[in-house]
Amino acid sequence: MGRKPSDVWQGTLALMVLKTLDTMGSMHGYGIARRIEQTSGDRLSVNYGTLYPALLKLEQEGYIAGEWGASEANRKARYYKLTRAGRKRLEKAAREWDDTQEIVARFFSPDEAS
Amino acid sequence: MRPLRAWWIRLTGLFNVRRRTEQFDAELQSVIAMHVDDALRRGVAPEEARRQALIAVGGVQSVRDAYRDRGGLPWIESLTQDVRFAARMLRKSPGFTAVAVVILALGIGANSAIFSLVNALLLRPLNGGHPRGAFVGLYSGDRTRPDRFREFSYPEYVDIRRQNDVFNDLLAESVARPGLTEDGLTRRVMTGLVSSNYFSTLGVTLAAGRPFTLEEERPASGAAVAIVGYSYWRQHGLTPDVIGRSIVISGRPFTIVGVAPEGFNGTMPVIAPELFLPFGAASLITERPDGSNRIADDRAALTLLLAGTLKEGTSIEAGELRLAALASAFEAAYPQFNQNQRLIVHPRSRVSMGPSPRSDTGPAAGAVVLMAIAGLVLLVACLNLANILLARGAMRRQEIAIRLALGGGRARIVRQLLVEGVLLSTMGGAAALLAAWWAASRAVSSLTAVLPMPIAMNVSPDGRVVSAVAIASIGSILLFALGPAWRLSAPDLAMTLKESAPLTSRHRRRIAVPALLVGAQVALSVALLISAGVFLRASVTAASMDPGFPLAGGLIAEVDPRMIGQDDVHGRTTYAALLEHIRSTARVSSASVASMVPFGLTQYGRQVHRNGVSTSAGFTVVGADYFATLGLAVVSGREFTIVEENAATDPVAIVDQILVDRLFNGESPLGQTVRLTGRDQPDELVRVVGVVGKVRDDVLQPPTAHVYVPFGSHYQSEMTIHVRTAPGGEAAMLEPLRAAIQRVDARLPILSLKTMSDHRDATPSLWAVTFTARLFVAFGVIAGVLATAGLYGLRAYLVTQRRREIGIRIALGATRTNVISQLLKEGAWNAAGGLIVGTVLAVGLIQVLRQSGMLYEVQAFDPIVFTVAPLVLAMAAAAASYVPARRALRVDPTVALRPE
């Protein structure tokens, strides 16, 4: 892969965080960042200066809840998990994303061009 | 909802910054630790693992900042910083802060004081009531004479109340001033004579007791019941047993049946009734001497004013249309009283009460003019403060330049300076609110001293006044702070960093704005000072106006035997005894009685007819020797005699020269007969037995025509005793006069006792002129002082800037006189333009003010005023330029030239 990992852009980051927490259950900031990078096949790099404000924003909006806990290596870390509102938000966002994708895809599909 | 929730959490986040920061630091540390753990697992050396972790995390501080910004509300945080910084800056220069706050307090205070008065007069809800629907007056007007209106009779009121489908409620009222006796002292009290539904129509619940009944409302019922005002109840300890207590009104016992609620002023504008009586009690108390306010079950007794609340959905026009049918029914049934009378619905005036519908456009226009003038004062204050801020900004240039150089945004600096302005104007506004309250209360109490009745003007600050002050404060911030903030934050001032005091600054351009501001201040204050001068002249002229008789040596005492229940026969005896006693008192050269006193509040008139020509004239009932006592010359004929004073004789009259000029074409009026007519009055044929000189009844009006008739044939209980003594001895005569009256009958209330000069000085129209003059002088002086201070500030600043130039000129051999005259000349230029513009402005302003009618017999272009006012300001300006110039010269040239 000759390509340099690009920074995640703002709006989508929140969605990725929600999806990650949906898949992984409860997770700390480091884990969320790693997971997003891995899922993207290392094509995205997560900047903590972007991630943490995004986490805080989601927390303030009540989509996720944070709680102190112990990591696998027995380190103290703050674990985030989806709230019910967050799950609803994710479902809605996923539907919207599907719609958007489908519409945009139609514009680029060869059948449509003819 | 979600954004709101987030916003709230961020707002509360402002208050636990430290705890949040610590928590986040811990979280960040755990992230770094996990990075290190990972790297160690991959077999990286510990040192290297830590280095890589830190790189991965990025700048710890910038992550922390980003997190903190999201955690709180950054703009509020920086605003708090600005406020703290501004407060520190202001505390650091207490002198400047004090001056700025005082300037603003004066400027805003002048506005809010005027506004408090306007608010009390025109805007504030009249009473604590909540009428159901729009409260309007009902008027009866002559269809053929659009300017003719009349009051209603009681039967007419009852008919309209019963038969209309326009009003929810319709009340009727009249006014009386009976005597109220408490602790042996009797005084007149403003009293509302009201219908039984008066309080319910106004939506007012009594504080105690009950309203009047329909039976008590019936005119002939003789119901001796009263509802007292709240202030009466408070004076008597707010005890519940006030209901049922007895109270002596006009010499008769009345029973208190109710107490009006606190703050209730009735429907009367400005004047507050202290007592309410039902129509049934009207015949028991003092009526007007000519019986013109009698309330009776008689269609000829037209004495009631009507007002009510319109039914929901009924407009004034629709209401009038529906009342037209009622009016024509009355016209058909009672042609004698209701011919051509139509019913008119009109909003009630806030400032006058009478039978004709009136709008408040006149007072409103006056209010606008006064507010505009107060606005000028605020404008001067703001211009002044703007100048001070600019000059101060010059000292802060270095600070601002450093901030700009360090990357501070211009918006942030403007905001910082504006926040300082906000702090200043908040303090100024608060001070202004208190000052205005004080000033407006003073104004009202000075009016109360003039009027013999309580004034219901609540000038305490309410929501409207506070908003007005807030608007004035915000407006003044825009005026005084925004401009300087914008100029001072201009990036080109970064130059300042390099040089401290430019030797040959481009000061012409740089001071153009401040110089213009000072010029404008001078112009406005000259205009205000000249107007003040014109009003002062007017008040002096009014006070020195010849009333037609000498004031010195004259005394008056007002009595009314009906107030202690004496009927006409008894009253005549009392007056005869009084006059006999007073005339024999030592140092009394003559004494008499009169129904009307020049400059008095009440005036009665008659039409005087002769050979088909008629004119209106003041109608005064007088005793023997009245003209000698007043000091009015008898031109021909004679005074009334003691016989004419004591009993009805041949109908005779004395007229004044104005009447003679109008009716007699150079013939001698003596022995001629004239006819006197008046509304509700029987016609009288009287023989003229004397002619007297002219008398002025109002200090602001030319003398008017008068006809005098003798006391014996026109007895009335409400008279004023006139006494003449040696000029200068009148003040010492007050107590002997009181003693003489009391010796005749100790119960007789002395309603007023004063010298003629004091009486003249307490005339409401003279008060109005004097008050306006004082107001303008206050405004003018405030503006003048501000303008002078502004000029001083500008000159001082400019001279300081040019210390080096002055130093060089002195070093090169310029004499001190040279330098000073040069500097003074510049100062003169600053002021001269303002003086000229201001004088022109004053001419226009005075033209507007003349419309008020208060500038009686005053020239628009008074040469003395137009010379003195600009001269005073010119001298102040000269002093303001001279002092800084002197100070600059005191500096040693070598010191001034040494680079800093």
CATH topology of chain A: Arc Repressor Mutant, subunit A
What's the domain count of chain A? 1
Briefly note the structural class of the backbone of chain A.
alpha+beta
Distance between the termini of chain A: 34 Å
- Report how far the terminal alpha carbons of chain B are from each other: 61 Å
Share of β-strand residues of chain B: 15-25%
Write a structural description.
The complex is a heterodimer of chains A (114) and B (900). Helix content of chain A is 60%, strand content 18%. In chain A, a hairpin with a 5-residue loop joins strand 4 and strand 5. A three-stranded antiparallel beta sheet of chain A has the order 2-5-4. In chain A, strands 1-3 form a two-stranded parallel ribbon. Chain A has helices at residues 10-24, 29-39, 48-60, 84-108, 110-113; strands spanning 6-7, 27-28, 44-45, 64-70, 76-82. In chain A, helix 1 crosses helix 3 (48-60) and helix 1 (10-24) packs across helix 4 (84-108). Chain A has a single domain (6-113), classed as Arc Repressor Mutant, subunit A, CATH 1.10.10.10. Chain A contains five helices and five strands. With 114 residues, chain A is α+β, with helices and mostly antiparallel strands. The longest helix of chain A is centred in the last third of the chain and has 25 residues, at 84-108. The termini of chain A are far apart. The mean pLDDT of chain A is 81. In chain B, strand 1 (135-142) and strand 2 (149-150) form a beta hairpin. By secondary structure, chain B is of the alpha+beta class. Chain B folds into five domains: 2-72, no CATH class; 75-126 and 363-498, no CATH class; 135-347, no CATH class; 505-547 and 758-900, no CATH class; 561-748, no CATH class. In chain B, strands 1, 2, 3, 4, 5, 6, 7, 8, 9, 10, 11, 12 and 13 form a 13-stranded mixed beta sheet that branches. In chain B, helix 2 crosses helix 4 (60-71), helix 13 (361-395) packs antiparallel against helix 17 (507-544) and helix 17 (507-544) runs antiparallel to helix 27 (863-889). The relative contact order of chain B is 0.10. The model of chain B is unreliable at 499-508 (pLDDT under 50). The two termini of chain B are 61 Å apart. The A-B interface holds A 28-30, 47-50, 52-53, 56-57, 60-62, 71, 73, 75-78 and B 2-3, 5-6, 9-10, 24, 26-28, 30-31, 33-35, 37, 57-59, 62-63, 66-67, 69-71.
